[in-house]
Design brief:
alpha/beta; single chain; Rossmann fold; binds adenosine-5'-triphosphate
Length: 321
């Protein structure tokens, strides 16, 4: 089957680098003589027919921009049979022979369902959390970590000036990758991630030992979803006698201009997605393995397991006394 036209959408949480992926999809497709439609606000746009034809210049000046020019959303209706049917009808109306879905694992579930309904879809991992099991990397992860790091460095300045302990919560949605890496990079005394159990008494003990060794300020890095860090700071302050403050970094981690890594990988992923669709291949999710793009059947990709790097956790623990 000759592929004449495809669609592209962003879905789930936004991530810096999504625009670079959209740009790559649009340009790679047009270079192959394939028309491209931008689908707005995730699967909502597919259901409501909120689509616009994209040209080479529609994606000018976006590679450096955070967020997504296609907007993004969650769409409960697409979880229903009727919703998927409406989405399929929009594809047929515009003659879309395939759709590129940039988002997280929920978005890929939708892509698998739409593929099964007869519209080939390719998933591109786009989420700051790096929590897609079939890919070593997800678009937005590096930018989010660098944003978090620059803020933690500022918190460190004030923690140092006041001999304080700072507890900082970063994003990750049940995954500790952002916390682990930013924790190592900022020299955190302790990193709390969902993948490794922790005991507050061990943290308190470590702070006390480090204090005896001359350490005067402390950063505890906590992944989102662990618990209330205000409560934790009270416990630590009471047990160590060190003034302790809690900071939740929040949504600022989602924004900003994407880093080199995010722009490059987004471009590679976008290009690969178009290559697959142009060959009539669908129901695949793209991933990064040993720094090369690979692709898997969506369901198989979603079922894969990603090992948490315990060695990195141990390194952090031992070099932060
Ligand atoms: P993030 O990791 O950033 O949250 P995500 O892609 O995992 O991104 P979700 O909210 O889980 O975000 O999913 C995005 C959208 O994908 C949903 O709002 C829904 O429209 C669609 N979707 C999710 N699961 C399914 C499913 N089982 N069937 C059809 N569509 C689905």
């Amino acid at each position: 089957m000759e592929v004449k036209s495809i669609g592209v959408l962003t879905s789930g949480g936004d991530a810096p680098g999504m625009n670079a992926a959209v740009r790559a999809v649009v340009r790679a497709a047009i270079r192959k003589g394939i028309d491209v439609y931008g689908i707005y606000r995730g699967y909502n746009g597919l259901i409501n027919g909120d689509v616009k034809k994209m040209e080479m210049r529609t994606v000018s000046d976006i590679i450096q921009k955070g967020g997504t020019i296609l907007y993004t959303a969650r769409c409960a209706e697409f979880r229903t049979k009727e919703g998927v049917e409406k989405g399929k009808q929009t594809c047929l109306k515009y003659g879309m022979d395939g759709v590129v879905v940039i988002g997280g694992d929920g978005s890929f579930e939708g892509a698998a369902v739409l593929s099964k309904a007869g519209i080939p879809c390719i998933g591109i991992p786009g989420t700051i959390d790096n929590d897609i099991s079939c890919s070593e990397y997800t678009i937005g992860y590096d930018t989010a970590m660098n944003t978090a790091l620059s803020m933690i460095d500022k918190i460190r300045d004030t923690a140092q000036s006041h001999d304080r302990c700072s507890i900082v919560e970063v994003m990750g949605r049940n995954a500790g990758y952002i916390a682990l890496n930013t924790g190592i990079a900022c020299g955190a005394s302790y990193i709390i991630v969902p993948e490794i159990s922790y005991d507050i008494n061990n943290i308190i003990e470590k702070i006390k030992v480090s204090k005896k060794l001359g350490k005067q300020h402390f950063i505890i890095l906590v992944a989102e979803g662990i618990g209330n860090i205000e409560d934790m700071s009270k416990v630590i302050e009471k047990s160590t006698g060190i003034e302790t403050r809690a900071t939740v970094l929040g949504h600022v981690q989602r924004g900003g201009s994407p880093t080199v890594r995010d722009r490059v990988i987004a471009s590679q992923f976008g290009y690969r997605a178009v290559e697959l669709l142009s060959e009539g291949i669908g129901n695949r999710v793209i991933g990064l393995k040993d720094n090369k793009t690979v692709d898997y059947d969506i369901k198989e990709g979603l079922a894969m397991k990603k090992e948490f790097d315990k060695e990195m956790f141990d390194i952090s623990y031992n070099i932060s006394f």
